[in-house]
Amino acid sequence: MARKRGRRVAPSSDHHETGAKTSTRPDQFSESAASDRKLITIFIVFFVVIPAVSVLVYRIKYAPNKDSSYPQFQEDGLVKTDVDYQEILDENSKVLKNESHRHYTYPVLAYITPWNSKGYEMAKRFTNKFTILSPVWYDLKSQGTGLVLEGRHNADMGWISELRRNGNALVLPRVVLEAFPKELLKKKKLRDKAIDLIISECKEMEYDGIVLESWSRWAAYGILHDPEMRNKALQFIKQLGHAMHSVSSSRNGKQYLQLVYVIGPPYSEKLQPHDFGPEDLQSLSDDVDGFSFMTYDFSSPHNPGPNAPLKWIRFTLQILLGNSGARALANKIFLGINFFGNDFVISEGSEGGGAITGREYLSLLEKHKPELQWEKNSGEHFFLYVDDEHINHAVFYPSLMSISIRLEEARLQGVGISIWEIGQGLDYFFNLL
User: How far is CA 116 from CA 191, 300, 341, 409, in A?
Assistant: First the structure.
């Protein structure tokens, strides 16, 4: 899922350091370029040509067919495309007085990571904004000929108690299934053991269920290309969900243990064997309570650009909910929204960069005082800067407007949202939820 996340932001990315010190505002750059024609050429190549090429593909493939519908909620006129860096620095920490009021009424799943402590604070502060809180705590691994569930040392029961005093959000820790898939899926004894470990942990720790991540791991192992193994994979998830639904919650005897399953987006209209599609959605719908749909990480250091182009989000939802049977399951989808951003290297002959948090984003704004640009085709803000090593960067990070239009898209589609992850965002993002 979403780097020390199943597919998301790695701990090293969460603590990424940037080395830029000098300001490179476009107007300042232009003034110096007036005295040196070589700098004009550099500016054109690195700040116009390269960024244009890096977004050309998604502009062509994912340009919206019509104007996006913007949500009605506007807080103090800050939800807009022409945002200024100083405005973000001045306003990002301000939240509404009523921190528990929900503006987005569909289900909201929020991830919290142990390597980013701010997420724990945001979960407590805005508990009532969420329906499910998923701390990223557990890994189920192979150990010799058996299995072991690691991660209880991450569990913070005091934090969970405080959450439950503040609101009614369910606590569903994430479990990444790292066990060798061929052994696990072929051996009934191991399948039963995996299910027993998960349910026992839920009972002992009084969790409301789990968020399970395994599909991307199985795809990486290549087993989903084998029809027989692919079917065994689906049957295991069904077996787990059925078993969890037979167990009452320790906190609420009228509610069974919940299972949310993590799925990735397809990248082409013709589904590949490893893609999770509408038939899979229907197959698991009776035994899975929700599907966390990872609609982010569209771009990478190899292909810099926006985090999650709006047209691409629509495209992936259309593929997943393509037929009438799957469309009826829209209410079980948690559409992924990123609260992290990316700082990409775009210098010629170089690539690199990676995920950044809100804290790192604010530091870049304060240091470089950039001109933020709105890319309407993707529905995201970005800016450019040059670091101390004279390396050019493009930064894509969520804004009130980019989040707002994704919330509206989710509302129009009748789906919930999942946020990776709340510790990486800015405080005023929560005003929109």
Answer: 32, 22, 15, 28
Strands 333-338 and 380-386: unpaired
Residues 6+ apart with CB under 8 A from 45: 348
Joined together, the tokens standing for residue 216 give: 């991307």
279-328 tens-digit pLDDT: 999 999 999 999 999 999 999 999 999 999 999 999 999 999 987 778 89
The residues, any chain, with a CB within 8 Å of residue 170's CB and separated by 6 or more, are 131, 132, 133, 208, 209, 258
| Token representation of residue 136 | 């990223």
- Only one residue has tokens 């397809």, namely 266
State what percent of residues in the chain have pLDDT above 90. Answer: 74
pLDDT in tens, 329-383: 999 999 999 999 999 999 887 778 999 999 999 999 999 999 999 999 999 999 9
User: Which has the closest alpha carbon to 119: 292, 339, 336?
Assistant: 339
| Cβ proximity of 18 and 364 under 8 Å | yes
| Residues 13 and 355 sit within 8 Å (Cβ to Cβ) | yes
Long-range CB pairs of 267-274, under 8 A, 24+ apart, other chains included: 269/319, 271/319, 273/224, 273/225, 273/227, 273/230, 274/218, 274/219, 274/224, 274/225
What Rg value do the Cα atoms of the chain yield, rounded? 22
Q: What is the pLDDT of residues 135-147, one digit of tens each?
A: 999 999 999 999 9
Sole residue written with tokens 């007036």? 34
| Concatenated DSSP letters of 372-389 | -EEETTTTEEEEEEE-TT
- Per the rule left: phi > 0, alpha: psi between -120 and 50, beta: everything else, 247 is beta
| DSSP single-letter state for residue 48 | I
Give residue 382's pLDDT: 98
Residues 159, 161, 167, 172: is their CA dihedral positive or negative?
positive
User: How many CB atoms are closer than 10 A to CB 223?
Assistant: 21
3-class DSSP assignment, residue 227: helix
Q: Report residue 287 as tokens.
A: 């035994």
Determine the residue type at 252: N
Task: Using alpha carbons, select from 155, 2, 79 the residue that is nearest to residue 381.
Answer: 79
Neighbours of 117 (CB within 10 A): 11
> Within 13 Å and on the Cβ side, how many CA atoms surround 18?
32
Q: How many CB atoms neighbour CB 211 within 10 A?
A: 27
